[in-house]
Structure formats: C-alpha cells, structure tokens
Amino acid sequence: MNRKMFELTDRQLSKCTEVSLPSDEWFMGEWKRLHHGRLAGWGMGKRQWIISMMSRTADYQRGLGQGRVDAASGLEYSEERIDSAYNLGYYRGYMNYESDRRGWDDQTRQRFDEQYVTEVVTA
C-alpha cells in the first residue's frame, strides 16, 4: 500500500506563523506582571504558551493532517521527524482522527475521503 502524503493548501499555509521562543527572564517578568507579582506556576504557563504557539506553525499543521491521513488509511502510528511541532501535530491528528471526523460536516468528510482515503480502482 502506498502511503498518501498530506499537503497543506495555500489558505492553510497563509494562516501559519513562525514562532520565536522568548527567554525565561522575559516570560517570568510577564507572568509576574499578569499574576499580581506572583511567580508560582510560570513554568506550567510557559509550557501551555509553547504548545499554543506550536499549534500555529506549518510543521504542526502538516503533522496533524498526516496523522489523520495515516489513521484513515489504517497505517501504524510512527514518529518520523525530529521536529517536536510536527510530532505533536501527528500525535493529535492520529489519536483524535475518529473524534475529529465525527465533528466534520458531510462535505468536508467527503472531500477528505476523496483526496486521501478512497483508492481509485481501474477495471
């Protein structure tokens, strides 16, 4: 079975951003400012911020789509890249595929199936 590769559309690419990671000192200062001078919890806050920013990158979106395509095709789960944004997206796409699919409208589900799932049979 040939593995189908997910391709981002131009519209999807236009929504993606590049993320630069701020220093710990900057993040701690912002955390203290937003939390009335308290520093407790800034590490978990930074973790959540990083995950939120990762989900806006093109690598995350590619991984998310490829995870869905692989899950729909019945392929085994595999982390194939070093990039953590891609792997996070792949994991979420693969593991949440069935749930995500139930949330799609009929047109989206049909378009996904035609492009990534349905094999063309020639007689």
Comma- or semicolon-separated keywords:
0% strand, 123 residues, 7 helices
Mean pLDDT: 89
Count, helices: 7
Sketch the topology as an H/E string, one letter per element: HHHHHHH
Structural class: mainly alpha
Unreliable sequence segments: none
In total, how many domains does the architecture comprise? Answer: 2
Strand count, sense and barrel status of the largest sheet are: none
Cα gyration radius (Å): 18 Å
Kindly state the number of beta strands.
Answer: 0
Gross morphology is: elongated
Q: Helix fraction? A: 55-70%
Measure the end-to-end span. 18 Å
- Report the β-strand fraction as a percent range: under 5%
Describe the structure.
This protein is mostly helical and 123 residues long. The protein has 2 domains: 21-54, no CATH class; 57-116, no CATH class. Helix content is 63%, strand content 0%. It contains 7 helices and no strands. Helix 4 runs parallel beside helix 5. The radius of gyration is 18 Å and the shape is elongated. The model has no long low-confidence stretch (mean pLDDT 89).
Strand-helix topology:
Blueprint: H1 10-15, H2 24-34, H3 42-54, H4 58-73, H5 84-95, H6 97-103, H7 106-117
